[in-house]
Design goal:
CATH topology of the largest domain: Rossmann fold
CATH class of the largest domain: Alpha Beta
Radius of gyration: 25 Å
Number of strands: 16
Strand content: 15-25%
Largest sheet: 7 strands, mixed
Shape: globular
Strand order of the largest sheet: 12-11-10-13-14-16-15
Number of domains: 3
CATH superfamily of the largest domain: Vaccinia Virus protein VP39
Distance between the termini: 57 Å
Number of helices: 17
Helix content: 25-40%
CATH architecture of the largest domain: 3-Layer(aba) Sandwich
Amino acid sequence: MFWQTIVMSAATPPCIAPPADWQYDPGSFRDRDSRVLLRDGRVYRALSQTAAEDWQSISQHKFWQRHQAAGSLIGSELVDAAHTAALLEAPYVAVLEHPRLPWISYPYEWTFQMLQAAALLQLQLLDEALAVDAILKDATPYNIQFQGTRPIFIDVGSFTRYTPGMPWLAYRQFCQLFLYPLLLQAYRGCDFQPWLRGSLSGMTPQQCRSLFSWTDFWRRGVFSHVWLHALMERNVRVDNSTLSSNMRATGFTKEMLQQNVRGLRRLIEGLRWQPRRSRWSDYDQCAAPVQSDAAAKEAFVQQVTQRQHWTQVWDVGCNRGRYSRIAAEQADLVLAIDFDHLTVDTLFAELAEAGERRVIPLVMNLADASPGWGWRGTERQRFEDRGQPDLLLMLAVLHHLVLGENLRLADVIDWIAERQSAVILEFIDRSDPQVQTLLAHRSIAEPDYTREHFECLVQARFTIVEQRELPSLTRTLYFLVPR
């Protein structure tokens, strides 16, 4: 067989480190049969004998090829063993290459509809895999990424051949990382992002049960997937080594498993999170200075973004994505970032309806940005370490960071300068109504928040290419390039 190009000895110790010019992806180590490696900006996956046989078998089926063609399953090409011989040490026997995605996001940065779309893709792939006697051994949203608003499954090593009589062992993981966060958001209106950021394993059945009241007992999915699950885990210890024979003895079939998977799909498809508004959801339509400055601000952003083609743009404080859409006309990728969940979820829905593939909406507060965490603090990367913008938009956000989040103006300018990118930055004077509102709630007057101090800090790190005062007369746009 193609993966048996190197004869493995049972006595050969496992490879504990890749060759010097290769690097293991720090987020890919929990699956011993499938390990992601990086080299010269390219992405590879080393497969064990079992994983290689699974991939060879399952990837020949039409469902696999159809999802690859549609872009919902990452592409995979077998690499000639002669070019990767240094990697083919125990336990690995074959290497695949995947296209590199421009950005890696995590589920605690997604909106409700993004997590919902990812869950439905996971279940759809599982259902179609079962039809050809395959199954997904993992059920984590970290196996899914977004290209614009389209979810794409990236962990091809998660597919394995199905053993008759076995249940879906990843069901608990699916509940903890997909189903429970979605139920919590839909039924209780509680943002799930802090829960997913708080634990790589997600929410346990007991934790989820404690967040629902007795009146929630009758809501769809709560009794069967939360209450019963929590009760069984508390009272029964499951031995996976005997589970298969027990399931066979009770007549459990693949068709029954498929029915359960389809029931989960219907449950998740029916979930809705529909708050009427948030503090920032109507910001573009209701804030007087925003309204008066809108046309001039759009013209400035369009003028700057048309100067060149941009590889990656970060729009920090994107709100409803007005300027993200403008930037996307001249960019390969735009990250539309805002801390208001409802606003970003609405943006995702609008972009998805339009079929937008260049903008990825993300829920994140820059003052509390996603950290490096997990095993040794590297399993999930810090937000700033995952990519580098060549254009940064920070429109109507500086005063929120300094006066709302109590950050030092000099530190914020330092953070901006560390990106080493061009910047469109908006400064809002102390006389602006919104700044006055923020100052009224502070015990310290923040004397450093002045235009003079701001421009002094900026000029030490940047060249001001262009500057434009907006019609409100309290707001000014700056186009900056690093010195």
